[in-house]
Each structure stands twice: as structure tokens, then as C-alpha cells.
């Protein structure tokens, strides 16, 4: 048995125990861990400085180093975030539905933990704490595999989990960190079918593809974030310009940022020059279709490939369409089923767009940047899903649960006549 | 592009259209198909006679031939079953949850179809109609791959779908049947990631394993049905004997039949001889643990392997346990997380058992044979799931749906300060 299989076996056992603890114990453990993280601030900062130094030596880009770096403020945020998750309502034990059958059987559908979650994520120690908090609060054991560049910081956190969980009365294997930092860990974790109930991969497309290719268990994921904003012919221009600006430039590197702007032909000549001026002021490079090109000074011609591209940068593709239906068809064809918006003052158009676009989150008159567990009021999120099974869109505590049918009878059998 | 990829592409297009039709159109199409099946009774019976003849030549067992065989009564049941599904409430469009955020965003979580379903199943033409009805009613396009022995009967049904769907105004590719009957079809369907949203495999363990191994999309399935009945020390013996009899002998070949009986040590000497007498009268072979063996005349000694075996036959393994916890641990270790029951007059024991057993359906004082969509009141079922993601236990119309977030704003952006 490999070290990772042994880890998965231990998680499986821990998960069965963890499922039976009340919310008070799970939440108290989280509060203990939060306090211990605060107290370990010095050790954590020192380990993180070494992580950052090694990544600098490797020539990692500034944005990467920024996500990797811990500060006293970020450590306080990590601890406070765990305390916030601890204070959220218990996601477990809820009776989702309950009914009685004509034969007297009472059927209850009750919310229970999923079991063992494998979480593979980027080099950010703050995510280690978020994930541990969400999984523990939802009664799941978790196997954490953070990016190898954050291993030093993560090991400090793993030591805290290992010490504080038993101190709070919970199995130490409720939260485990894979410690080798090697790529093989990901593949070995993917092979643990029957022990790990679900894998949630977060990070680059390459990583997510590898996990989908090899996982012997269900995967919750999103691959791309090719998000659209469609400016309808009835759009309020001021709203449209502000929303498109926010969706593109407020944080261009994230999955819910806009990559393509679609504009109804009837307003293109009025709207696009104004939009272009705002985008130019933000330093956005525009790749425009043949019709938009002359209306947007300084723009470059778009190719077919642009419609399929997630720039994750201050670059935007722009296309005019002849109808609402053409916008919907473009999004369903080229998009990634993540987050798309319509800007319109016509409620029927908004409705048709929301029904027609096959994406996890479909917005009317607001920015696609709202696709986020925090913004939905979930308190925190483990990720965003763009598949259709189990959970779609932002995933919080409830999306980390399953259900079980508990049926109560008084001697019922399937075929009473046979027994008479 | 392979023929099956082309089929999946067509299903994808059909699914987008199908999702927008109202319940009345989808249900009317089902009623048309049901009537056409009735009218094609003669052709269907002739094709089925040929299917049965070929399977007899191959030496298929009597139970297989019985499932394969159509009769005028069964054809009427197929048609009536589709009409029944047509009359069920629309599973689509329901607002599952709705709330408003402090910034004024109104978030609605709305039930939508999954999209394209791949359904792989046994050689039973009746299942072809059930699956087509459930998928169409839930707004999903479906690619059907029935067992090759029922291909002749299925082709008659596929011709009906192909004719009646466009006649009802729906895309013909909403319901497609794979027609080659070759094994490669299964693997090619599994390769259609991105086009097929989920595969539901039904049948032998070999088939389900193959699908899990190769599928590039989520799979909804159960692999085994190793179901237990635990007779607690406080059990009512008459109830326990009737329930165990029903769970084992009413239809021993199905997945929710009992395979192992666990009995509390304190009642074993009283209970087991009475249970053995009933089981002997039903012709059940008993494989007993060392302690149960002398209490059950005519039983054989059980081996470790027996606790892991799904007999699907009139064979039962029997084990005494020293406590409720030992019963729970045995079930979680050897069971298949499908359906398990406790027989007890003690409500606290029932509660502890239902919380402790990690199975899709956990019963108190009734037979495990109730794990079935019809018995749960779902109207029909596409299968039973034992994994934790998306759907667990019997899967009906609702389990064939996903959801989408539809968010309405009035110009909200993520960072208003940046725009001011």
C-alpha cells in the first residue's frame, strides 16, 4: 500500500467518526485551530519567507509570489476566516424532504457529509485554512494537496491540525496534508477510488485535465472561465460600460472575469466608441470582429481562436451580433458554461437569455465577477463548478454534503401476500 | 468523427432545444409515443420473438429470457408506463431557492435539465421505454445503449421515437438508440466527454466497472447490492422473520435483496432456530458463522469471502454480533452502501443505526426491498446510486435534473469605488 493509500484509508476511518460528532465539537475544533494559527504566526511567517525565496529563485512571476506570500494581516484573516466558518449554521442533519407512503413507510431525506474529499489546489497557504475549515465544518475528512511552492508554510499548518484536532476530541486524520510535494502525489490520489469520494482540483487547466483524465472517483471542477457580457439593443449604456469595465478590469486574472463582449448590431455604432474609450483608459487591448474594428480605435482584428481564449489578462475580444439568439448561440458554442451576463432594460430579453444560456451562473444587469461563494452569501467557497452533476456554480458548505434516506416502518414487507 | 460522436453532437444540439419546450409539449410527445408503441404491438412482438430465439440458441438462462421476452400485456404496461410518466408533475423550472443579497442582487436557483444522458442497460425493451420517458420528461436528450440481445425489439422502438418526436414538434435526436450492438459502442460513448454530461450504466459488475474505468464524464451508478438486515436484541421476532424472509426470498436476484443477516448474540439462541425454519421452508441455503452454525440446522460454515459476496440467489450468510456497534461496523466494512435494515423495538438503537450506517437507504423495521423509485413515490426510476455525489438511492425525474443560478441586478459591479 502506498503512503497515499494509507492516508486515504485513515481519512475513510476518520470520516465515519467525524460524521457522528455534533456541530459544537466540529466548530470548537475550528476555533482552536484558528487560535493556534494566530499563535504560530512567527513560525508561519518564517516558513513562508523561505517558500517565497525559493519561488523567487525559480523566477516565478510577481502575481504568483503575491498569492504565495503571507503577512501578519493575512494570517489574521486566515484565523478570522476559520472562525467565521465555525459560526455558520450546521450544514448537516437537515431533513431535506420527508413524506409518508400509503403503506405507512415514513421516508426522510437527511443531509450527511460526503465522506472523504481530495482537494488539490494552488500554492496559497490561505486556501489550506479555508479548505480545512469548510471540510471540517461539513463533517468531511479532507486530504489536502497544495502547490509544492507553498509546502513549507503548509507543513506548519499541518502540524497545527495534527495537534489541535485530537486535542478537540476529533480524529487527527480528519485533515491530512500530502507532504512530498511531488507530482506523483496527484496521480496516486486520483487512483484512490473507493476511498476518496470526490476530488476537487483547483488551478491551471493542465492540472484539472490531468485529474479528470486519471480520477477513479467523481470530480467537481471548472476547467475554463470564458465569460461573456452581451449588451442588448435595449441596454442602458452607462450601466453597460460600468459593468463591462468591472467584469474585465477589476481583476482580469480570475475565472469569472469577462473575456468576450458581445454587442447588438443596432447599437454598435453608438455604443462601441464609448466602450472603447473606457477600455483604453484602463489599458485594455481589444481584439475586434470585422464589424466592431472600425468602431473601436486602436483595436486589433480578432481571429476565430479569440472566441475560445481565456486571456486572464487585460485583453478583450469584441463581436457584434444580429440578435439576442445569435448572442445565446455564440455563448453556448464558445463559452465555458461558467458565468455570462446580459445588459438589457427589456425583461423578456433577460428572461430568454437566462433560459437559453447553458451556464452555471447567468446574470442580468450586473457583473460576472459576482460568481463567488462569498458574494452568494455562502460564507466561503471551496470552488466553482461548471459541470451539471451535484453542484454547479459557487460551492460552499452545502455543496460539500450528500444525503441519505432514512426510512421507518412497522413491519412492512414488499409482498405481504406471500407471507400470509 | 465516429458515428457515436456524431450522435452525441446531435444529442447536444437537441438538448439545448428540448430544454426550452414546455412540459405540455414534452408530455404530449410521450403520449404519442405510447400510443404508437401500442399500435406497433404486432411488429414489436415479431422482432422480440426473433431476439428471444437468438438468445435461446446462445443458451441464455431462463431468467434472462424472461426479462427479454415481450408479451401483449408487457407492451401495454410499457405504453401505460410512458403515459404515467407523462402525467407526473414537471420537474423543470422549479425555483429551488431564492434570496436577495445586501447589495440588491436577487439570486434564484432554478431547476434545469442535465443535458445529454448516456444510458447503458440490460437486454430489456421495457427499460428502453422507461428511460426514454424519464429523460424526455426531464428535458434531457438521451443516448440509449441497450443490451445487444434486445437489439431487434429496440430498433422497432427507435423507429417509433424517430417518427413521433418530430411529429410532436421535438428534435428527433432527443432520443437516439445505438444500433450496432457492438461492445465498442460502450467505450466510444465513454469517450464523449464534453458532449455527454453523465453516463448511467445498469447491469453486471463487469459492465459498470468498464464504464467507471473509461468514462470521461460523471457516472451515476451502483456496483453491488450487498444488503444487510440486523436483528437487534430488542427485535420483535415475528416482524424480524417476516422482513428477513421478504428481503431474502421475494426476489433474490435483485440488488436490494438481503445477502447477510446479522443477529445480536443475546437473542441468537432463541431467534436463529426459528429464522432457520422459515428459511428452510423457502429453500434458502445458509452460510453461518461459527456461533450461528449450531443454531441453524442444515447450514454450512461461512468464510470471510461470504461477507463480501452478493449471491443474487437463494443463499444467505448469517453472523452473530456482540453489539449494535459491531453490526454497524460490519455493514460499513463489508457492505456496498446500498440498503441496510435494523429490526428493533428500541428507537434509540434505530436512530444510532441509521446515523452510523453509511448507506444510501437505511431502514428501520421494514424490508430492504423497498429501495426502488416506485416504492419511494417517484413514479418511476432510472436506477439506484450508491456514490455520494449528485444523487444517492433511487433516482427518478428530479435526480435527472441540474440547476442554474439566475441573478438579477440593476447595475451592480464588484468594486463600485473603482468606478466612482
From TrEMBL, chains A, B:
<dbReference type="InterPro" id="IPR016162">
    <property type="entry name" value="Ald_DH_N"/>
</dbReference>
<keyword id="KW-0028">Amino-acid biosynthesis</keyword>
<keyword id="KW-0963">Cytoplasm</keyword>
<dbReference type="InterPro" id="IPR016163">
    <property type="entry name" value="Ald_DH_C"/>
</dbReference>
<keyword id="KW-0560">Oxidoreductase</keyword>
<comment type="function">
    <text>Catalyzes the NADPH-dependent reduction of L-glutamate 5-phosphate into L-glutamate 5-semialdehyde and phosphate. The product spontaneously undergoes cyclization to form 1-pyrroline-5-carboxylate.</text>
</comment>
<keyword id="KW-0521">NADP</keyword>
<dbReference type="GO" id="GO:0050661">
    <property type="term" value="F:NADP binding"/>
</dbReference>
<dbReference type="Pfam" id="PF00171">
    <property type="entry name" value="Aldedh"/>
</dbReference>
<comment type="pathway">
    <text>Amino-acid biosynthesis; L-proline biosynthesis; L-glutamate 5-semialdehyde from L-glutamate: step 2/2.</text>
</comment>
<dbReference type="GO" id="GO:0005737">
    <property type="term" value="C:cytoplasm"/>
</dbReference>
<dbReference type="InterPro" id="IPR016161">
    <property type="entry name" value="Ald_DH/histidinol_DH"/>
</dbReference>
<comment type="similarity">
    <text>Belongs to the gamma-glutamyl phosphate reductase family.</text>
</comment>
<dbReference type="GO" id="GO:0055129">
    <property type="term" value="P:L-proline biosynthetic process"/>
</dbReference>
<dbReference type="InterPro" id="IPR020593">
    <property type="entry name" value="G-glutamylP_reductase_CS"/>
</dbReference>
<dbReference type="GO" id="GO:0004350">
    <property type="term" value="F:glutamate-5-semialdehyde dehydrogenase activity"/>
</dbReference>
<protein>
    <recommendedName>
        <fullName>Gamma-glutamyl phosphate reductase</fullName>
        <ecNumber>1.2.1.41</ecNumber>
    </recommendedName>
</protein>
<dbReference type="InterPro" id="IPR000965">
    <property type="entry name" value="GPR_dom"/>
</dbReference>
<dbReference type="InterPro" id="IPR015590">
    <property type="entry name" value="Aldehyde_DH_dom"/>
</dbReference>
<dbReference type="InterPro" id="IPR012134">
    <property type="entry name" value="Glu-5-SA_DH"/>
</dbReference>
<keyword id="KW-0641">Proline biosynthesis</keyword>
<feature type="domain" description="Aldehyde dehydrogenase">
    <location>
        <begin position="4"/>
        <end position="281"/>
    </location>
</feature>
Amino acid at each position: 500500500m502506498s503512503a497515499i493509500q494509507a492516508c486515504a484509508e485513515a481519512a475513510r476511518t476518520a470520516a465515519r467518526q467525524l460524521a457522528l460528532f455534533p456541530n459544537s465539537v466540529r466548530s470548537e475544533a475550528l476555533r482552536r485551530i484558528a487560535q493556534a494559527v494566530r499563535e504560530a504566526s512567527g513560525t508561519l511567517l518564517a516558513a513562508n519567507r523561505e517558500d517565497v525565496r525559493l519561488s523567487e529563485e525559480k523566477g516565478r512571476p510577481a502575481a504568483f509570489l503575491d498569492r504565495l506570500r503571507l503577512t501578519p494581516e493575512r494570517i489574521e484573516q486566515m484565523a478570522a476566516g476559520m472562525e467565521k466558518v465555525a459560526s455558520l449554521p450546521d450544514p448537516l442533519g437537515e431533513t431535506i424532504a420527508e413524506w409518508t407512503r400509503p403503506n405507512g413507510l415514513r421516508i426522510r431525506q437527511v443531509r450527511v457529509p460526503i465522506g472523504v474529499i481530495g482537494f488539490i489546489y494552488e500554492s496559497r497557504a490561505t486556501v489550506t485554512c479555508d479548505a480545512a475549515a469548510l471540510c471540517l465544518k461539513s463533517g468531511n475528512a479532507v486530504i489536502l494537496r497544495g502547490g509544492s511552492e507553498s509546502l513549507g508554510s503548509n507543513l506548519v499548518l499541518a502540524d497545527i491540525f495534527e495537534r489541535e484536532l485530537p486535542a478537540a476530541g476529533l480524529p487527527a486524520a480528519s485533515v491530512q496534508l500530502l507532504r512530498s510535494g511531488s507530482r506523483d502525489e496527484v496521480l496516486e490520489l486520483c487512483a484512490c477510488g473507493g476511498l476518496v469520494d470526490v476530488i476537487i482540483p483547483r488551478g491551471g487547466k493542465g492540472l484539472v485535465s490531468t485529474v479528470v483524465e486519471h480520477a477513479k472517483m467523481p470530480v467537481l471542477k471548472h476547467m475554463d472561465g470564458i465569460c461573456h457580457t452581451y449588451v442588448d439593443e435595449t441596454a442602458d449604456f452607462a450601466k453597460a460600460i460600468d459593468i463591462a469595465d468591472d467584469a474585465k478590469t477589476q481583476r482580469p486574472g480570475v475565472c469569472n472575469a469577462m473575456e468576450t463582449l458581445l454587442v447588438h448590431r443596432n447599437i454598435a455604432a453608438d455604443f462601441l466608441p464609448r466602450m472603447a474609450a473606457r477600455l483604453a483608459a484602463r489599458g485594455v487591448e481589444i481584439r475586434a470582429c470585422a464589424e466592431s474594428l472600425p468602431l473601436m480605435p486602436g483595436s486589433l482584428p480578432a481571429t476565430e481562436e479569440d472566441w475560445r481564449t481565456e486571456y486572464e489578462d487585460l485583453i478583450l475580444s469584441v463581436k457584434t451580433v444580429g440578435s439576442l439568439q445569435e448572442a445565446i448561440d455564440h455563448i453556448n458554442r464558445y463559452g465555458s458554461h461558467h458565468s455570462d451576463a446580459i445588459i438589457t432594460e427589456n425583461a423578456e430579453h433577460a428572461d430568454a437569455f437566462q433560459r437559453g444560456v447553458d451556464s452555471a451562473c447567468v446574470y442580468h444587469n450586473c457583473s460576472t465577477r459576482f460568481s463567488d461563494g462569498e458574494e452568494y452569501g455562502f460564507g466561503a467557497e471551496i470552488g466553482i463548478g461548471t459541470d451539471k452533476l451535484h453542484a454547479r456554480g459557487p460551492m460552499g458548505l452545502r455543496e460539500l454534503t450528500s444525503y441519505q434516506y432514512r426510512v421507518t416502518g412497522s413491519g412492512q414487507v414488499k409482498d405481504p401476500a406471500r407471507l400470509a
